Amino acid sequence: FLGLSVPQYFNEYTAINAYGPVHTSARWFNDMVNVPFSSEAFVAGLLAYFLDNTMHKKEAQIRKDRGKHWWDKFKSYKTDARSEEFYSLPFNLNKYFPSV
């Protein structure tokens, strides 16, 4: 709901008043705040990032929901046999630029 309503507010405010809700004497600052918050994708992504990082990170089910359990295998290069394939460069460039 917030991902749709906040940008709608910014867009309607701009359409009615010819400037955004953030209106200071510095136009560059106004644009830096008004333009991103007029985008549904930006507001939804910002909200998702905030909510995702407010959860308890140590609980096993939350780690699984966030996909962290999958990345644990690849934290160290030598812990998984698939690391060579996972970290290899495309077009066989790892012959010239070897992995660490």
TrEMBL record:
UniProt record similarity statement: Belongs to the nucleobase:cation symporter-2 (NCS2) (TC 2.A.40) family.
Species name: Plantago major
Gene: xup1
Protein name, UniProt field: Putative xanthine/uracil permease
